[in-house]
Amino acid sequence: MSQIRVLIVDDDPLVRAALSHFLARSPGTVVVGEAGDGRDALDQVGRHQPDVVLMDVRMPRMDGIDATAHIAERWPDVRVLAVTTFDTVDTVLPMLHAGASGYLLKDSPAEEIVQGVHRVQEGTTSLSPRIAALLIQHVRTRARPAPVGADGLEKLTDREGEVLRCLARGMSNAEISTELFVSEGTVKACLGRIMTKWGVRDRVQIIVAAAQAGIVSFT
Description:
The chain has 219 residues and is α/β, with parallel strands linked by helices. It has two domains: 4-126, Rossmann fold; 143-213, Arc Repressor Mutant, subunit A, CATH 1.10.10. The chain is built from ten helices and six strands, in the order E-H-E-H-E-H-E-H-E-H-E-H-H-H-H-H. Strands 2-1-3-4-5-6 form a six-stranded parallel sheet, with helices on both faces. Helix 1 links the parallel strand 1 (4-9) and strand 2 (29-35). Helix 7 packs across helix 8.
């Protein structure tokens, strides 16, 4: 099995060293480069073609949000995992909207960060529990009931809408499967169709799109 190629982006060299140390201890990952800001990150992505980028949010010259948006546009197969100290909606939502596949806090256990790298590489998401709770609460607070398909998003089937509502409650595929009495394969297929219809690439982006459009009541 090939190793996951990781680029570390943070303006603090001590943080880069610590993250590199964590990843070096994992047999499934290899650090292919480091960058101290967003502009350098784009150069490094073009040079090394990593599988996953660990991205800080606030950095000089170009921040992580802008860098993530550029990566998502230019290298759509590269996954970005935010690793930062900032845990407010004003930071989390723009980062996820820019294309990050996950959002972890720097006080997360080392094993959680390593697992996060594997999860986003596999096409799933990785959110610190505090971030997941913040995001879901924001969606529940701000979302307004409206017809599915509002704001230019393609209309979902009834089953897809059910899966979306479960997803917004923070459920895993297995939990959604149990809740709706369907197989996990059916859940994955529904999520895949939603991604295709809405032009998004992972579970986090589905929630962000739903929150922005206000198409589901998360109660």
